[in-house]
Amino acid sequence: MNCIQDWPEPIVRVQALSESGLGRIPDRYVKPATERPVGMDPMGDGDGIVDIPLIDLAGLFSGDPAMVRTTMGRVAEACQQWGFFQAVNHGVPPYLMDQARHVWREFFHLPMEIKQEYGNSPKTYEGYGSRLGVEKGAILDWSDYYFLHYLPHSLKDHKKWPAQPPHHREVMEQYLGELVKLGGRLMKVLSLNLGLKEDYLQNAFGGEEVGACLRVNFYPKCPQPELTLGLSSHSDPGGLTILLPDHDVPGLQVRKDGKWITVKPAPHAFIINIGDQLQVLSNVIYKSVEHRVIVNPNLERVSLAFFYNPRGELLIEPAKELISPENPALYPPMTFNEYRLYIRLKGPRGKSQVESLKSPR
Question: Where is the Fe2OG dioxygenase domain (predicted)?
Fold first, then answer.
C-alpha cells in the first residue's frame, strides 16, 4: 500500500498518561467544542432514550420456517434503519467470549516494555498502537489498541500476536475461528434479505478467503471525559463488524436521527454493524452508520472489534441485481485496499469518505 512507513510524531501511550495521575488531559486530546460529549453522564443515555435493536438469532437455527422469516425480517429492518443491532444466542460460547476479553485486559496490564515489543507502524497497523491517522498535529483519541490479521492466511503471522499472557494465542485462535463462522452465517442472511443468492455477498468478499482482522480497544480512565473521545465519530470502512463490548462499562454511541444513543450491552451479546463495503454492495439498502466512543473518569474499558471484510484487492461495487434505471449504481468500483488507505492517512472522519465516493446523479 502507498502508506508512509512511520508515525509523524513520537507515540504516547494513553494508558501511561492515565496512570500518571494527571488532572488535565493534554491539549492534543481536546476535541473541538462541536465534537465533545459535553454534559454527558458516561454511564448514561447520551442524547437518546432508546437503544439499538436486540435480536435473538436462535430463530435462524430453529428449523421453524415462521421463526426463520421473523428473525430474518428483524435483521433486515435493523440493517436498513439502524445499521446496528445486538445479537444474542449467536452460537459463540459465552465462556469463550469471557476468555477473549480477559486475555486482552491482561495484555494491556503487562509491563510497558513487553507491550512495546509489539509497537505498530502506519504500514499495516498490525500490533500495539495509540493513533490511527498519520496527519502531523492531529487531535488524538483517548485510547490505545492492538490490531492483528486473521484472514487471508497469507497475512496471519503469530509472531505479531502477543505471546503473553499464557494461552493468549490459543484462546484467540479459537475465538476468531468462531467469529468467522458467525460472520459467514450472517452474510447468508444479509444476502437473502437483499433478494440475492445466499452466497452472493460471501463471494463478493472473496469466498473462503475473505479478509478478517481484529482491533482490541483499550480506553483508560480519563480525568476530563467531557472534553475528549475514546474513538472519534466514524463509520467502519470494511464489511461487517462483530463487536464484543465491555458489558460493565458502556461507551459505544450510535448516531440516530441526529442524536447520540449510548448502547447498553446485553449479557453475552455481540454488537453487529454494517460497514461501508456492505453499504456500497447493497447500493445503500443497508446503511453504515456513524458511531463513536465516550470515555469514563473512573473505569477503564476493553472492547474487541472483529472486522469481516472483502479481500483487499477485490473490486467492490453495487450488486448488478440491485441496479435499475430507477435505482442506478451510487458508487463506482473500488478495491478495499484503495478505500481504507484514506482511513489510514486521515483517521476517523464521520461518514465523509463513503459519501464523497458517490457517483454524480
Answer: 209-310
**Axis crossing angle, helix 168-193 with helix 94-108, rounded to the nearest 10:** 130
Q: Select from 342, 294, 344, 305 the least CA-distant residue to 31.
A: 294
Cα distance between the two ends of the chain = 31
Distance CA 255, CA 82 (A): 9
State the CATH class of domain 14-356. Answer: mainly beta
Q: Which whole number is the average pLDDT over 197-204? A: 98
Strand locations in 183-290, DSSP E? 211-219, 231-234, 240-244, 252-256, 259-262, 270-274
| Residues 84, 273 contacting (CB under 8 angstroms) | yes
Query: Dihedral (C-alpha) 337, 338, 342, 345: value to the nearest 10 degrees?
Result: 70
* CA–CA gap between residue 338 and residue 148 (Å, rounded): 19
pLDDT band at 343 (very low <50, low <70, confident <90, very high): low
What beta strand segments (E) does the chain contain?
54-56, 84-88, 127-129, 144-151, 211-219, 231-234, 240-244, 252-256, 259-262, 270-274, 291-293, 301-309, 315-316, 334-335
Taking only Cα atoms into account, the Rg of the chain, rounded to an integer number of angstroms, comes to 20
Q: What is the pLDDT of residues 126-147, one digit of tens each?
A: 999 999 888 899 999 999 999 9
Q: Which residue matches cell numbers 483499550?
A: 218
Position 202, amino acid: Q
d(CA 263, CA 29): 23
Encode pLDDT of 107-130 as tens digits.
999 999 999 999 999 888 899 999
Task: Report helix angle 65-81 to 168-193, nearest 10.
Answer: 90
Q: Any idea where the domains of the chain sit in the sequence?
A: 14-356
77: Cβ–Cβ under 8 A, 6 or more apart, which residues?
Answer: 53
Cell numbers found for residue 34: 462541536
Q: Cα–Cα distance between 41 and 304 in angstroms, integer?
A: 23
CA pair distance 299, 228, nearest whole angstrom: 15
Rounded to whole angstroms, the Cα distance separating 130 from 264 reads 26
Residue type, 93: P
